[in-house]
Amino acid sequence: MEKLNTIFFGTPDIAVPFLERTHELTDVKLVVTQSDKPRGRGMEISACPVKKRAQELGLPVLSPEKLKDSFGEISQIPFDVGIVVAYGKIFRPNFIALPKLGLINVHFSLLPQLRGAAPVQQALIQGYTQTGVSTFWISEGMDDGPLFLQKKLDVDSQDNAQTLFEKLTALGLDALQETIEQLTQGRVLRQEQQGTPSAAPMLQKEDALLRPEQLSAQELHNRVRGLACGPKPKIPFLHNGQTEWVQLIRTQLAADNSAAPAGTVLAVEQGHGILVKCKEGALWLAQVQPAGKKPMPGEAFANGRSLKPGQKVFVEK
Q1: pTM for the complete prediction?
Q2: Which helix (H) or strand (E) holds 264?
């Protein structure tokens, strides 16, 4: 059976395995990524992960500063479908109309749930117990095009952004392969999204503010799970009148009958970490990663900063 002619649009690490699968299953005519940018500690200008992998595979690459600048060149390439994974740019109607069939996006949620840039992190922060992957046809709106297919996934209570990304990547590769196989066989599926949409906006610094006086232990636990990977946003850990930026790697819900004010350290225990009183319940800070250092047990972090029961943390000045 003749392969589809495709153009792949993607930029970060997470898109690399999708480029590889698209390369296996289709004839990739071109790879389009975001432009080279300063990266790493030295902030040297370098290519994004998708561009590097495409070059290793011997595929032609375009990395325009603005997508519209490449319209003329891309419009000269006949292709059946565009595959889009974490490209990071908006497609105007003239681009959507270029491929014979359209542009297919792989999105890490069960659309119309969690439309936006951070569906994995927001699924955790918002306390979803089920999510999944959608392949859908890009339209002019935000993640609102017709669905091709969806695959569901239960969210484990201890999943964080890293583990959920890994699970959804594997599921997404299966979804992409099934989509490409059906398109290759001439089955073009388009089904309107059903249900009430919800949003998954890009994370902001405000999302990293942990306010135990305003949130329950469960809500704080969910927020930590959603922030527990990636370079930002870091969490401002307030203690002894000082602010230290950290990454909370792991937390654990705890029973609590204390009458202490929210934000109070209730205990520091070996093997458990730092127990913090919340608006409802309490939360163990089991693993903490200070800026520039490796993850450490919560109790080691507390001991290094002389944190003791009765002191306040995370409470805004």
Answers
A1: 0.91
A2: none
Cα 236 to Cα 247: distance, rounded to the nearest angstrom: 9
What are 223-243's pLDDT values in tens digits? Answer: 999 998 766 668 888 887 888
The first and second tokens of residue 155, run together, are 């969210």
Nearest-angstrom CA–CA distance, 141 and 229: 29
240: region left, alpha or beta (phi > 0 left; psi from -120 to 50 alpha)? left
Q: Are 106 and 135 in contact (CB under 8 A)?
A: yes
Using DSSP's 3-state secondary structure scheme, residue 155 falls into: coil
Q: With contact defined as beta carbons under 8 Å apart, do 120 and 225 qualify?
A: no
Contact 287, 273 (CB under 8 A): yes
* CATH code of the domain made up of 205-304: 3.10.25.10
Using left for φ > 0, alpha for ψ between -120 and 50, and beta otherwise, residue 87 falls in alpha
- The per-residue pLDDT for 39 is 56
Instruction: Count how many Cα atoms sit within 13 Å of the Cα of residue 123 in the half-sphere of its side chain.
Output: 32
Tell me the domain boundaries of the chain.
5-184, 205-304
CATH number of 5-184: 3.40.50.170
- For the chain, which ranges sit under pLDDT 70? 38-45, 230-233, 315-317
